[in-house]
């Protein structure tokens, strides 16, 4: 995508590239990976992905990896395994941001125990407002502030609206036992006919989550992680990126300053990446590239 539109995008690999892109009238575009499963349990692969330009990685997705628990799977590791902790440490050494959206609450806390650099939640919201396992508990929000990290609030309806979350839980119950994707789709269609369409989340609810993160963690530790992916159920008022100014207008009405809005719009994340780069420079003199294996760390007899 970056190569196809070089007049629009700039491949960014350092925090300083954002300012360079601005000067050139382009959009700084960082590469990330959503799911540590792609490593296939190899720290060598992690280093190769970094060499290819990847600058952040979500440790899990919807299912557990062999070394970290997902927020939406049955816990298997109690958070992180020893190899999972080594993954975090090696990411710190490289200067790759550790993304703990999608991981279990136990894994969130253990990453914060281990990480020597700021972490991010690339697309999560506040659990105090909507009790969804993908959202961030208040105690973790407070620890993210101490870590220097950033919680990027997402627009996913089930994460920002209690009504949408309840509807989603009801659908999950309805499709239990479905054996194929087609069968699941039919059940979901019938559910919508019987119960009506899913409730719409709203721009105001997204603003509520942003404000909660700012209240608990501070304005230095909140960002936007919209997670637009082509669905048709985006929050009312935030149907696409053209509506971002409306979200900022809502926050201005709530008393947000220009400085805090600049932090929200990307300043906080760029600061966190710069701090991760500084940590990597420091750690380079303390820690050689890890040759640890999952067999040696997690599967000893």
The radius of gyration is: 20 Å
The unreliable regions are none
Give the topology string: H per helix, E per strand.
EHEHEHEHEHEHHHHEHHH
CATH topology: TIM Barrel
Helicity range of the residues?
40-55%
Task: Give the beta-strand count.
Answer: 7
Secondary structure: elements and pairs:
Blueprint: E1 9-12, H1 17-24, E2 27-34, H2 43-51, E3 54-58, H3 82-94, E4 97-99, H4 105-114, E5 119-121, H5 138-147, E6 150-153, H6 157-160, H7 162-175, H8 181-195, H9 203-216, E7 222-224, H10 244-253, H11 258-284, H12 294-298
Parallel strand pairs: 1-2, 2-3, 3-4, 4-5, 5-6, 6-7
Helix pairs in contact: 2-3, 4-5, 9-10
